[in-house]
Amino acid sequence: MSEKINLIDSSKASSELGDQNYRRLDYLDQLESESIHIFREVAGQFERPALLFSGGKDSIVLVHLALKAFRPGKFPFPLVHIDTGHNFQEALDFRDQFAKTIGEKLIVRNVADTIREKNLTEQKGKFASRNALQTFTLLDTIEEFKFDACIGGARRDEEKARAKERIFSVRDEFGQWDPKLQRPELWNTYNGRIDKGENVRVFPISNWTELDIWNYIRRNKIELPSIYFSHDREVLEYQGQLVATSEFIQLEEGDKVSIKKVRYRTVGDMTCTAAVESNATNIDDIIKEIIATKTSERGETRIDDRVSEAAMEDRKKGGYF
Amino acid sequence: MDILRFITAGSVDDGKSTLIGRLLYDSKSIMIDQLEAIEKQSKNREDGEIDLALLTDGLRAEREQGITIDVAYKYFSTPTRKFIIADAPGHTQYTRNMVTGASNADLIIILVDARNGVSEQTRRHSIIASLLNIPHVVVAINKMDLVNNSQDVYNNIVIDYSSVAASLGLNDITYIPISAINGDNIVEKSPSFPWYEGESLLHILENVAVANDINYADARFPVQYVIRPQTDELHDYRGYAGKVISGIYKKGDTICVQPSGLQSVISAIEIGGKQVEEAFAPQSVVLHLQHDIDISRGDVIIKTDNLPTVENELDVLLCWMGNKPLKAGNKYLLQINSRVVKAVVKEIEYKLDVNSLLQEPTPDQAQLNDIVKVKIKTATPIPYDSYKKLRVNGGAILIDETSNVTVGACMIQ
């Protein structure tokens, strides 16, 4: 599939109403406009929103969309990162640098602090993950700052429970999602009314696919952390997946460790994100690889979704993004 | 490359999920791990065949019961178009979900079982397509393999459906014989129907002229947010952020603000931080005006040559979505685009039988999934257009102020 770059030049002199041919938005322009509209609805409807920003590609695109929605004004929300302590250093560095460059406030809360303060029990085992524990820190952070809306970069094409979620997704005070009690969401009219203690999760890029994200990154020349591009890394081969070796993973005797040329398709915790073998050093090559791939983004790179058919549905019901 | 949003309504029995599974599968939008997951599940079933329907049912309850409860959104693309499918349940008890999925659709695929012909369900789905003003209709006559691919059966269904469509005022209808389970006429034109002169379903979906559905004549711009940086260098910057929902705005255009009626002239237009000469639907932009006038979220900026109706008494076709019944006299919030006003349902005039389109005598109350004609009075006048004329400025929701839940979809007449 080749993407036709078809930027509309709105400054072109227009003659009359008759010929509308140049007034056609291509799919990326349409998606962008829809997302900006959602961002401004958040700004218009909520007192204390927040944008969840991890330094991953989807949240980076979110911030770029927010820049288009609100500049030259400041964002009407801070960037917030729930740091599990298991993140890739490259993503964290990018996170800090990017927030500084655009001059927006970044709030970081650490899962390690929640574990200590609330006496939580960490997972054990080879890939002990803090994925489940980050929900505690997220809910505490929402409470600490009284956030009434949290903007996130989830997409409906990622997973089938997500395919059912609204753009404005109401959560109770425990952050829980009730898939059977979702509000009808009609036209482009978003109902963000909530009671005290409740909050809304907002997903401005719900209708984007993985490929849309990459094409948008290419068109807008958006910078990404280096781990999205091919690099040498020491990895452990485990059940067909490549997991970076790190202090967070327990190596055992017989583990197959080697240095491979890899890149990341998604960026989550080092304990639950797998790399893919790749020589793609630029966006064009990445897009070619994604078009050719036969495995879905989460299927290839997320160890946490493999637990059961309803793994994501269960986590979302429990307050997860 | 543009976007087509379409809805498929129906139950598993109609082959709706099989059809969607087929479109995703044959357009190579299903990945190996997703296929393996449904293969694993299909093994638990008695027949052991790969069940493409499992691709679309996202919730545990849906998989367990083999039904679709809520709308799921699915995505695929071809070199010419990106497709967004609203996969909605088809039974009467899920009318609310179907209306939700239909509200944004450019096109609806109505599935007709070739063995049963035009059924009560076909009529209901067509009525909803008509109420929600979906611009394009594809009538897919499915399970043709079970009627020996008979041209006579097909022709009779086309004749039957034509009269239904005529009575509903549906336009742009395309008929196609298919067999979703065999993939006949889905992606490629099938030799099973040598008498069929049209194109495959995917070809139809790729070529529907959706761009013509955009209204460039009636300029409407609901203000969502006012950008005021209030910094030293941008001390006087005051931009009205919103989306052009219809029409075209140019620098120098005379505008008025509704409902206040104040007038001004567009002094600048920005898109993503860049100055442009004009903006058109559906672009998200920032407008600047020559005069400092009072404008806030919920106001609509309109060109003076073409005004909407500004009224506080509305005739509305209402799809009731609340679990608690609607009674005349009940008060709600009415939200149209970014504007929210208090409203009262003054009177329920009649209930529409969604299976026959007959008007039933005045009911005391409306129940979940009922479609009723009501009179609504709003606390202040709202600028709107009739839904039939301008979908983007004629659809509103009702919100129960005590539960915050969206309880009604209003198509303003």
Provide an overview of this structure.
The complex is a heterodimer of chains A (321) and B (413). Chain A has nine helices and ten strands. Chain A has helices spanning 27-45, 57-70, 89-102, 111-117, 134-145, 210-219, 283-292, 297-301, 311-317, and strands at residues 49-52, 79-83, 106-110, 149-151, 168-171, 199-202, 231-238, 241-244, 256-264, 275-277. Chain B has 413 residues and is an alpha+beta fold. Chain B folds into three domains: 2-212, 3-Layer(aba) Sandwich (Rossmann fold), CATH 3.40.50.300; 220-303, Elongation Factor Tu (Ef-tu), domain 3 (Beta Barrel), CATH 2.40.30; 309-412, Elongation Factor Tu (Ef-tu), domain 3 (Beta Barrel). Chain B is built from seven helices and 24 strands. Chain B has helices at residues 16-26, 32-43, 60-65, 95-102, 120-131, 151-168, 201-207; strands spanning 2-10, 72-78, 81-89, 107-113, 136-142, 173-177, 220-227, 239-243, 248-250, 254-258, 263-271, 274-276, 278-280, 284-289, 300-303, 309-320, 326-327, 331-336, 339-352, 359-360, 365-366, 371-384, 395-399, 406-412. In chain B, strands 2-3-1-4-5-6 form a six-stranded mixed β-sheet, sandwiched between helices. In chain B, strands 7-8-14-11-10-15 form a six-stranded antiparallel barrel. In chain B, a hairpin with a 2-residue loop joins β11 and β12 (274-276). At the A-B interface, α1 and α2 of A face α2, α3, β2, β3 and α4 of B.
